[in-house]
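Q: Protein A?
A:
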Amino acid sequence: MNKKTIKIRNQFLEFFRKKKHKIIQGSSLIPKNDTSILFTNAGMNQFKNIFLGQDKSYQYSKIATAQYCLRTGGKHNDLENVGYSNYHHTFFEMLGNFSFGSYFKKKAILYSWELLTSKKWFSLPKENFLITVYETDEETYDIWANIIGIPPDRIVLIGNKTENSDISDNFWQMGDTGPCGPCTEIFYNLKNNKCNKQIKNFRKKINDFIEIWNIVFMQFNRINDGSLVKLPNPSVDTGMGLERISAIMHNVSSNYEIDIFQILINDIAKISNTTDLKNKSLYVIADHIRASYFMIVENILPSNENRGYVLRRIIRRAIRHGYLLGVKNIFLYKLVSSVNKSMNINNSYLLNKKEYIENILKKEEIQFRSTLNHGLKLLHSKIKKTINHTLDSEITFYLYDTFGFPFDLTKEICREHNINVDRLSFEKHMEKQKNRSREKKIFNQNYIMMHNTENISIFIGYNTYKTESIIKNIIKNKTSEQFISSGEQGILLLNKTPFYPESGGQIGDIGIIYNNEGKFKVKNTEKNGNMILHFGIVEKGILHIEQKVFSEIDEQYRFDIQKNHSATHLLNSALHKTLGDHVYQNGSLVTADWIRFDFFHNMPIPLKKIQEIEKLINKNISKNILITTKIINFKNIKEKNIIFLSHKKYEKHVRVVSIDHYSNELCKGTHTERTGDIGFFKITSVRKIASNTYRIEAKTGKNALHLIHSQEKKVLEICSNLKTNPNNLKKTLEKIIIKQKNLEKDISKLKEKNITNIIAKLNKNKIKIKNIILLINTLQDQDPKTLRNIMDILKNKFKKAIIILANLINNKVTLIVGVTNNLHELIQANDLIKIILKKINGKGGGKPDIAEGGSTYIHKLPEALTEIKSWIYSII
């Protein structure tokens, strides 16, 4: 029965292959087109739309998979159990078989029982099983009791979950909404003794059992209001943890004792010099390195948001447990090879990612280790002073904000000391910080105004470029005034306006506000709370509060901005499609002339990818797609696959800008009517501006064309200078490069010949004193590299020598002094050069074997060389 884990997985799939199931590859850890969950947490995730009846084109009705899963948050969160439980993991493999209207309860149960108990397959003893059934599911109970033959005292009816119960409610659902239904769970008795007598104490002796297989009968869809709607085709979704069934087949009491974990644990133990292979820190690191590995493979990077923050939490928890084991240096990256080995990875794509994964882990560990020790000292000092067994939430927040301690890391450390942590208060501190950040952005000392009902502006400028308005307030020198006159700068507040205020990366409109009495030139438009502020100067006349005026934007300026804003949406979608779903916007600027777009990405972007992005955007421009907008309830956004900034706070109703099915984003900005209005899109630069942050700058329309014309002009000028044409430019440059290399080789040969000649002449001028060669000479117009080469050759040639070379060049003297290593006790190069430089008012220095310096006092050189020669004679 003791089979390798990988063979158990293959045997499961082979069983269902024989039962006419199609074996499908597991999906990505990042759910596709599903924002209700961060990670794939069950085998059924990729089939969600089939269960819901939304995808009717699927060609298979019976499927089996081995699915990588992550459970680190929400309804299914096993992070805090890792290390404290023998059977929970953040990352694990879920074996599952699925029926989409093909078979239902009876066959699903018969299949499970045959696989588990048949001698041909897993051959587990029948008397060791205990079954749970949802209390109202009489059909399932009847199958287990009357068809399979499980004694009634080994079938437990489970009702809805209550606060006092730790037992599953046997009504499975993927998340707060989505497909769900009653389930039956198969438990295995770890004590390997008969279950019958223990049934009455099942709840008390739950630790004697392990749940190995959950068979869900998908009958309903839970919608937003919590109610259940029957699914069109009842289906089956089962899940069996590979690690758990492997532990049972290995006849061990923990998942961490199976082969795939033992490889990791042994390697971690070697790194940490740990002899206790059941140390919980080994378990935590083994689990977390697997999770980190496969998250990074999906191009998720450590960050403070979304999936990146989950990865950061997992890595930092692993680092802390390495710290507990006494590991003083970074170590996680060393385990990437161990994961490859334990998971039997032979996929070239994953193997080629090894160095990439190692670098990400190295960087994160270096960053966190710099603050870990300080944070731990602070936390432990506070734990000692804690009263009432609850840590002050301000400390929890301070650890997060200053030292990068995720909340659950602080919670785990406190749990080890029987100290509670108040999550609700921590969340309040987080919200206060966010509010402070928002207030800081809103506040601007250039205009201090009262936020009252009179100071409200209505924006009507999506389709209206000119309107009649009333001046509600005038600000000059930070104070409200009754009027503003010719030549004065200030801010106008109107009751309604077509001027778009700078927000969401789009710059504010410009234009004019005027009537018969005066004209105000608007140079910029900004927003402050409910107010739209028009900054500018009065060009003529005078304007008063409560006056009627016409407000009119510069239409061409707005049109150029709109084109660029729509192009930014195309760019955002193109980045997702070409670089991956890990990309997310990190800021943008949309002007009338150009676009700037910052985004989160983890590696350099080659020219081929840049051109692919441009090609995709221009393809959608050429389609002349209609750009539409609509208002929806923000609650529904996750169901509609709409891009939005997760860190931003949105109102109840939001505006969605759609470019067919290609791009859907939340946006208040102004846009062109069709993509064809953009004309043409050209990326002007791509560069890295921060860790994992890249910036693309681009131009559209006439500005893009002007850029291409400018570049074309430069190419033609280069061609003219080189007397060639653009078609032959590359060949011409290649010839020039080859010619240059040949010339460099010729120069190098001449230099070598020159050095040979110089050394021959110098050799004639050497003096021998007591087996020591002394050579002092003056050269002309030699470059520093040549001098150093001459010195190296002479020192190797003479073996035991003192060499002083002076070089006269450009009315200066440069000196190089060399002393072979075997003479350093007698004399040193740095001492020699100090003596010479002192005589010629020069500067320099060096080491015992080589020293350099220089001076402009050439006339003092002969005397200095004569004196140093005498000094050397006296020393020798």
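Q: Protein B?
A:
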Amino acid sequence: MARKALLSGASALLAVMITTGATQAFAQSTTTEEAPKKEVEVIVVTGSFIRGTSESASLPVNVISSADLEKAGTPSTVELIKLLNVSSGVQGDTNQFDARAQGNEGAGSVNLRGIGPERTLVLLNGRRMAYNPFGLVGTVVDTNLIPSAAIGRVEVLKDGAAATYGSDAVAGVVNFITRTNLEGFEVGGDYKAIDGSDGNYTLAASWGHQTDRAKLFVSLGVQMKSELPLIERDWANRDYLSNPEGGWSAAGNPGTYIAIGPTGAPVSGITREPNCTGLGGFAGFSATTPVCFFHFTPYDNIVEKEERSQLFASADVDINEDHTLHAELLISNTNTPEWKTSPSYAFLQAPSAQALPAISGLPGRFFVPVTNPGYIDLLAKNPGLFPASTIGVNMLAYRPFSFGGNPKFTPEDPRGGSQGERSFEAVRVSVGLKGKLTNTVNYDVNLAAMDDTGIRTGYDVLVNRFQLALRGLGGPNCNVAANTPGANGCQWFSPFGTAIPGNSITGVANPQYNAALGTANAALVDWFYPEVRTKQTSSLVVFDAVINGETSFKLGDGPIGWALGYQYRKNSFRSDFSKFSDLTQQPCVSSPDFNNNTCAAVTGPTVFLSGSFPANVSADVNAAFFELRLPFTSNFEAQIAGRYEDFGGAVGSTFNPKLSAKWQVTDALALRGSTSTTFRAPSVSNIQPTSVTTLQSILGTFRAVDIFGNPNLEPETATTYNLGALLDMGNFKASIDYWRFDFDNPIVNEPIAGLVSALFPTTGLGNCGNPTFAAIQAKFTFSGGVCNSANISRLNTTVINGSAVLTDGVDVSVDYTFRDVMGGDLKLGLDATYTMSYDVAALSIGGVKVADPLDAVGKLNFQTTAYPLPQYKGTLYGLYETGGHSLRLAMNFIDEYVDQRTAPFAPSLNYSAVAGTPASITTGKTIEAWQSFDLTYRWAMDNDLTFTFGIENILDKDPSFARLELNYDPFTGNPLGRTYKIGLKKAFGGPK
């Protein structure tokens, strides 16, 4: 059915005969009227250091100009990357529930071939950039720092390029190249209208000036995104039984309790508090435990508010006719000032003995005494809920703030979701000198330095302070030692549903609400719910020196071209944490208030977010490389390259060669091919024994997952192949490329799903205590110290060299231009990528298999080492141009793919409202194929005023449903629906 829909859509598109696409679809569409206004650049620099290498050479390079981007509606960097048929699994849209994007709201990435953004090298003007300081895989560049208003073209090299550029260029290179040819002043902006949001807008101003000896360029760009609450999209806000994984948690409020008697033993069974369903919860079961499932995603945004600005300046000054000085400055800032999340988090840590009474019931549980005013009120309204002999209750599945929102944040947002901030600020300076050493030898030396600093904040409950508040000993002015609950500055916290006024999302009131209890709750929040803050900086210093030229020795079609180079890189990483998230200051739950820093597990004092250790590390890299271009005949040319990089220490060194060739078989037909070895070294943070903490769903509940570095990591290596054919018959152009990447020792995080399923093939005890699984069990921390799937509080994982990966596929690009159609030109075409295989070998840890062999093509690949990977992806497009007018229509299409997990689709007690009766929910196994139509009109007027209007997703098609928290796959889908965009640009002062 999906393929029939695709063919039907294709027929409709060809009937309309208009549009844009990605890669080649963007390229080379300048009209005759525009040609005098711009300086056409014909040299492609990406992929070679030999001067004069062009797009028609042996390497598969696509060029996208700024004019092409305008005719595509001026997509943002993230939108452009998602459109590329060669890129899958793209980070950039809000995706706080996946470890690969968590904490990176506001940041973006490019993921060529879907093999991981850490394996695509991103350059600015051919130079490296510092890594994203919050990138878990360590070697990802934040593409949202790119100065989009200054970009003149984007070059995409779809081939391994370690022989030329070194580490990270495994899948290829994306090179953003700034403008140099502006004369005068240019201003522009656009606005995108989005249903349920205040919309997005961009503003840009650029100035350029050229003299006989200098080119100056300055650009300032501002991009603003408005928040789009999840509740504005019905498809994203689903009830429990349509998607239990869609943001529903067993830890809620109303919560689940067990009554404790005078001896400390339970005197009742497990009891779910009343009013669950009335407040909007689902009264179900977590295994056999009755719980009130809480829907936390309605408090989130599907698009976060983002404020982004970039200042870019460059100068090229001719010192004399042989030497030119080049300098660049980039200041880039992204701020997500009001990141939204759940009103509070589930409890993953238990209070220490200092905060508990002498008799507190079950180990590893919070305790509420019967003297708590909330308990008294609850029993008065629900007589007989607990036995008369009860001295208090233990919490089994709980969070303090849920349906009613968090009183700390409701004054700003009636939903009452917890808030935080994410910001990234980068400063980059680059200075270089290039020119001629002799008539045949050129040189280029450059020194660049860059800092990328990220800050993220959030809020979490302090474990012991919350327990004290349950006993009436809360608040900053309470003398705990005096033990006067609710008096002399001490305050109570009521943890029960009677303190919730109602559902802040739906507006439904709580008939059992006690306003006095709610007011008391609000007064305590600042004390037990403080801010936690992380600041991390990634720094890079790079010195490059390249000489190139031609030898006096000639082959059949001319002299041999050559290049030699040296590069020095210094990568540095620093992380700092606020008081309650710095494990050197607050290692234990008993560290605050009780000053006890001795504990069995160093996890910090908060219930959910945990802490980390500060780091300040750096590493040096030295590299040397060469290239030769061998023009054997006028029809056959080859290039040979090699690069040696030395990382020092345990990482060591590596040498990677590359051979590429092109044969012009006829005037119309050419064949090209390449083979090389590539590599990626572990980042400086990957090889440190410190950790970062993510939050991941484990058996239906979010848990803390620590990812530790590994000093014994080896570089990953790959052998790459590319074989292609190019056909150019004037109006008809086509290319096809077969590509293959064969990895050894890929640097990956241990697979979460595999570790959990190995220890717990079934819920309960699973393989607890089995000596064969001792190494796996040691990675888990359990509440109360008892190994059981219900007691998991956190998981410790490590960055490792994983199992072998083999992936291959085909890129196709075809277009035909009809001349003089109603006075203009009409181009029709297709750009697509078909991934044939992505085979991951089995993985064992500690002698236990934690991952079976996997073919990741066509799968969601949740919590595996792969990204979501539809089998095919591409764009059908058409473009009509006449005079200064252009009209484009594109159909972007993505193949269906499947959720490879078995547990969410098997019968489960969790999916039933009846104890002991398993049910199954099978929807979402297949993530349906998706197509969207985009229309853009552009009018370039004679007075240098350009008007654009676009409609994206004309049919207003929802993203395909996936059994994930946001009900779609943010790495692949588009959550905005139909949008409208209008833009203006005006130039003053001369030709551009």
